[in-house]
Specification:
This protein has five helices and no strands. It is mainly α. It has one domain. About 5% of the residues are buried. It comes from Legionella drancourtii LLAP12. It holds the Pfam family UPF0114.
Length: about 160
């Protein structure tokens, strides 16, 4: 499964390079709105690639085998202390970020969707935000319940 995600990540790297090349070579023929939409497309591809990297590395670390990167100077900070709950929170927040980019793209160029489509895009975005908040809150409750009483003594939330 992780090999499949790595293949998709490679496809996203190709797509990013293709879109970047297209944007650079046609920049003189584009107005500001089209340039901004092109930049949003690049940001969208990067955010999805980051999501794939988080799932690949975090999933492997959490469910298969710990990566031995303790002495490696470029180890991602989040990797060493990310449990399954923390990974869910990061994934939910990444989905909210990706949805935000799509919503911003719709507001910049609303001609591709009618009002009904825009309404559903906003509803889906709000649902993702509420879901991310619920996941984060649940994860916080679970983490607080696993702390020992001596660790929380004298600590006021």
């Amino acid at each position: 499964m992780y090999l499949g995600l790595i293949c998709i990540l490679t496809a996203y790297v190709y797509r990013f390079l293709y879109e970047l090349t297209e944007l650079i070579f046609h920049i003189n023929n584009l107005d500001d709105t089209l340039i901004m939409l092109g930049v949003l497309d690049l940001i969208d591809v990067v955010m999805i690639a980051n999501l794939l990297i988080m799932v690949i590395m975090g999933g492997y670390e959490t469910f298969i085998s710990p990566l031995q990167l303790d002495t490696h100077p470029e180890q991602p900070e989040w990797l060493g202390h990310l449990d399954a709950g923390g990974m869910k929170v990061k994934l939910a927040l990444a989905l909210v970020g990706i949805s935000s980019i799509h919503l911003l793209r719709t507001f910049i160029d609303p001609t591709k969707l009618d009002n009904f489509g825009i309404m559903w895009q906003v509803i889906i975005h709000l649902t993702l935000i509420i879901s991310a908040l619920a996941i984060a809150f649940t994860n916080k409750l679970l983490n607080n319940s696993h702390e020992s009483p001596s660790a929380t003594k004298g600590h006021v939330s």
